[in-house]
C-alpha cells in the first residue's frame, strides 16, 4: 500500500469528491452527460498515458498539443477525401510516430534538452499548421462521425478503446522488460547504461510511441465533431502533464503509474462539470485545478524530503 500511497490518495480525493456531489449535486450523475464527459476525456487520457511514459523515462514533450492538432487535421483531410477508415487510422498513427521520431532523434540521438527541442517543434508545428490552414476548419463527412456508429455506441467505443489501451500500457510498464527499462532509465540513465540498457534507444522509442499515441488520441477526438479545428490541441500538453503529476508521476523521472495518471485526470476533468452543477462561477474551474496541482506538487516535495531524511538517519 505504501508503494502506491500517492495513487491511493488521489483516488480517495476523487471518491470523496464524488460522494460530495452525490449529496449536494446529484444531477451530476445523469447518464448521458457523464457519458459525454467520459467520451470527451478519452482522447486526453490517451495523451496523458503517452506523457506519463515520457515523464517516467525522465523526458518531457510539450509539443504534444501541436502534434495532436496536426494529426487531427491529417485525419480530417483524409476523411474529407473519402478515404476508408482502414487507411485513415494507420496513416494518422504513422504521421504521429514520424513527428515523435523527430523529437526522439534530436533529444535521444543528439543529446539536446527535451524541453528546448519540444518547445521548438511545438511552435513549428503550430505555426506551420496556421500558415497552411489559415484558420479554416476541415468539414467531415457524416459517415466518419463516431466511425459510423450511433452516438451512444460510438461514445462507449471511444471510452473502451482508451481504457483498453491504458490497461495494456499499464501492464506492459509494470510486467515487461521494456517497462522495467523505462523505469531504470528514468531513475538513473548512467546506471541503466552500465547494466546493459541503452538509454538513448529507450528515449527515442518513448518519443515515437508518444507520437503514435497522440495520433490515436487525435482520431478519437476527430470523430466526435462534424468539423476539425486546427487549434484543437492548444493547451493539451499542459492538461496531460498536470494529470500525470497529480496522479503521482514524477517530473524527475523513474516513478509513477498510469493508474495514478488516470485518477489524476478524472479528478481534474470532474472539476468543471462539478462546479457547474454546484452553480459556481466558471472562473473557479482554473483556480480549483491549479490548487489541486499545487497540493500535488507540495505533497511530492514533502514526500521526497521525508524520504531523504529517512535515508540520512539510516
Describe this structure in words.
By secondary structure, this protein is mostly helical. It has a domain at 47-234. Helix content is 75%, strand content 1%. It has helices at residues 5-24, 31-56, 64-80, 85-109, 114-133, 151-175, 177-187, 189-194, 199-222, 236-246, 258-269, 271-277, 284-313, and strands at residues 138-139, 227-228. It has a two-stranded antiparallel ribbon. Helix 10 crosses helix 11 (258-269). It is globular. Mean pLDDT is 89; it is low at 310-314.
Which structural class is indicated by helix and strand composition?
mainly alpha
Strand content: under 5%
Order of helices and strands: HHHHHEHHHHEHHHH
How far apart the termini lie comes to: 22 Å
What is the gyration radius calculated from CA atoms? 20 Å
* Mean pLDDT value: 89
Poorly predicted regions are 310-314
In total, the number of strands is 2
Spatial order of the strands in the main sheet? 1-2
- Main beta-sheet strand count, sense and barrel state: 2 strands, antiparallel
Shape: globular
